[in-house]
Design brief:
Length: 256
């Protein structure tokens, strides 16, 4: 199909297919985009056809091989985001499966990763987004330059800044007042569209998980280097491993 904006729901026969379609519809509303489902194979199962029809989403079949086919479809000019299932089962050893990782690493489009724990959760609009940032220009720029132009509905952006031992301010005369001033300056410089900022200390991945649960967030937004080898993207791996809500990854920098 042809549309000014399209969100692709990348389906496989696994149990996460329904959550992927429902998430894609929510992302489509968030981004003002049509939704299309794609499946790699000569034919689709009755379950996938029924699922797409039930949600009034067209289903397009792509010829194998899987990874090349999906990357080709996601790379179409009208596509603004791809929605993929994270892994086959809850508590899996890897944060994502091979196909999801191939899409995440291989496309310049935003990618929404849906955990299997989202299956069975009633879909709701994406109204509160948790945006963890490190305070650097490199990590903050994708939110300002990439996320905000994608969103067409009214949302609440909650910025989370987690201090690590390396980044915590050495001197805070009055922590409450000083952190409020730091927060105002940070939002003005890096994320002027945000509603508010929350400060935490400790392991970044753990604090992100705690924050989206406490804030009742619908979506976690992370900048993503598209480099998942050891020593890179630890926060992304940690959040994808533990998250029970969808995670939107915004690519930053050239693909490796």
């Amino acid at each position: 199909m042809t549309a000014e904006r399209t969100v692709l729901a990348c389906l496989d026969p696994g149990p996460a297919a329904r959550a992927v379609v429902e998430t894609a519809r929510g992302i489509g509303t968030l981004m003002g985009a049509a939704v299309e489902a794609v499946h790699v194979g000569r034919q689709a199962s009755e379950t996938l056809r029924t699922l797409a029809a039930h949600h009034d989403v067209p289903l397009r079949l792509l010829p194998p091989p899987t990874e090349a086919a999906l990357l080709g479809a996601v790379g179409a000019p009208e596509v603004v985001a791809a929605v993929v299932g994270a892994r086959a089962t809850p508590g899996g050893r890897r944060p994502t499966g091979r196909t999801a990782m191939a899409v995440m690493e291989g496309t310049s489009r935003a990618t929404v990763v849906v955990p299997p724990e989202a299956v069975g959760v009633s879909p709701r609009p994406f109204r509160r987004l948790l945006v963890p940032l490190e305070g650097s220009e490199e990590s903050s720029r994708p939110v300002v330059e990439c996320l905000c132009p994608l969103i067409v509905t009214e949302v609440e952006l909650v910025v989370l800044h987690v201090f690590t031992p390396e980044t915590v301010p050495r001197v805070l005369d009055r922590p409450g007042r000083d952190l409020e001033m730091l927060g105002d300056e940070f939002l003005t410089r890096h994320c002027p569209y945000a509603t508010r900022i929350e400060w935490r200390t400790g392991p970044v991945g753990t604090r992100v998980t705690e924050a989206y649960d406490r804030e009742d967030a619908d979506l976690v937004v992370l900048s993503w280097s598209q480099h998942s080898s050891v020593g890179h993207a630890k926060v992304v791996r940690d959040v994808l491993t533990t998250s029970t809500i969808p995670v939107l990854l915004l690519p930053v920098g050239p693909r490796p």
